Amino acid sequence: MKVVTTIAELKGIIKGAQEVGQSIGLVPTMGYLHEGHLTLASEARKENDIVIMSIFVNPTQFGPNEDFESYPRDLPRDTKLAESAGVDYIFAPAVEEMYPTDGGIYIRAGRQSQILCGASRPGHFDGVLQVVAKLFHLAQPTRAYFGQKDAQQVAIIQTMVRDYNFPLELRTVPIVREEDGLAKSSRNVYLTEQDRSEAPAIYAALQLAKDEMKETGNAEAAIEKARKSIETETSGRIDYLELLSYPDLAQVQENTTEVLLAVAVYIGKTRLIDNLMFSIKGE
Ligand code: AMP
Fold first, then answer.
1. Nearest alpha carbon, ligand 1 atom 10
2. In terms of CATH, what superfamily is 2-173?
3. For the residues of 147-196, what is the DSSP string, one character each?
4. Which mutation among 149, 153, 190 tests ligand 1's pocket best, with the greatest number of atoms within 8 A of CB?
């Protein structure tokens, strides 16, 4: 496995792969790898001739008061883990390599970005699309892999790929969890012992709401049940807790079949997100 830091070198690798007809799997990450990321890499390994994992803490998707500076980084550790998951190349550019100039031209995420994480993180999804579009152009993947953990991100990237005709297939991988149900996240290292003991209550609350929804079809009651449970079981503050149609992320209607139950909770200083996707009709 090789760590590549320049666009020029990456371009050479892509050209070489394309000349011999190899398929390319791309796994975009911000590093500090855990089993969630490695599952994306393993999926990419199964389906492609070469696997490229990008490791880039993208400044343009962080707000001014967010954790860009303190976001955990450990490239030597990531390199070993990525290699064990079958990654061929890590693309780990410096910020100046990715954004040498600012010509003032940006991608703006649409309606799907105004809610959930987008409501409390203005501009976040614009930054995500900026870096993902660049990575798609640079790596020219046959397939790109994203986690359901960031369900809103997946929905927005799907829209960009569709509307701007990116010639690739998107693959979505289910959420990888700790044994107690907590969704794995690079930000889990921020949790204190007390925070960590409270955090599994988030997933448990989502399951309660899902059961309620399946039994009664009453979205408000389901949300209320989850809200109460999080408030009772944790000292956290709920940022949002919503049930929306998926992937359009709109109000649930009579004819809605697939739903996303999504939550963001501040446990201590750490903002944790989680979600469940399920169908509400035809089962
Ligand atoms: P990040 O490094 O947090 O930007 O995540 C990189 C990719 O890994 C994104 O597509 C995430 O959705 C995905 N990912 C992060 N955590 C998990 C998880 N627990 N299970 C599955 N995928 C994940």
1. 146
2. HUPs (3.40.50.620)
3. EGGGHHHHHHHHHHHHHTT-SSEEEEEPPPB-TTSPBP-GGGGG--HHHH
4. 149
